[in-house]
Design a protein that fits this description.
By secondary structure, the protein is α+β, with helices and mostly antiparallel strands. It is built from 6 helices and 6 strands.
Length: about 170
């Protein structure tokens, strides 16, 4: 059992390194073709093409992860995550704290990631997004799709950071 846990832990460590290096090709080498990725507050993604789009967008944010593995059972690992990125730093809510990150594996590759924000992060994000999102959608419509979802590309991730920086410059603080 320890050998299996060590292998899964090593895959997670390589995955986090690839995320932190913004190396989306390496991320994709570590996920199954039918991977399911569901990050709190974002549209769930199915399959490598959609997973690629998300991690490209995330790379545009300048994201980095600090993952703390808290348990391993069968083909799953449970973690906590502190995510740093340019958007949340500009918003003043960095790091984004995920109280639960569940990662499942199939044939030694990541097949599923599901996350949940900590209550504090969820509250802070809700407050910021309530006024930021309409402002950004009006001034930066290219950052969103016609149905109001984020346009998941590396350049739109970077532009989203720029939009947050501009919004913070223009928004008075209490």
């Amino acid at each position: 059992m320890a050998g299996r846990q060590d292998h899964l832990t090593a895959v997670v460590e390589r995955f986090v390194k690839a995320v932190n290096d913004h190396d989306v090709d390496r991320v994709l080498e570590l996920v199954t073709d039918d991977a399911h990725v569901s990050f709190a507050g974002l549209t769930p993604f199915e399959g490598k093409d959609r997973v690629r789009a998300y991690f490209e967008w995330f790379a545009g944010y300048g994201a980095s992860w600090q993952l703390d593995i808290v348990g391993c059972r069968g083909n799953s690992i449970r973690c906590r995550l502190a995510a740093h990125d340019g958007w949340s730093e500009a918003a003043g809510i960095s790091p984004l704290m995920y109280s639960r990150v569940d990662i499942s594996f199939k044939n030694g590759l990541v097949s599923m990631i599901e996350t949940e924000f900590s209550p504090e992060t969820n509250h802070e994000l809700s407050q910021v997004l309530e006024s930021f999102t309409p402002w950004a959608a009006e001034r930066y419509p290219e950052l969103y799709t016609e149905d109001g979802d984020y346009a998941y590309y590396r350049d739109t991730g970077a532009r989203m950071v720029e939009a947050m920086q501009k919004w913070k410059e223009l928004t008075p603080t209490d």
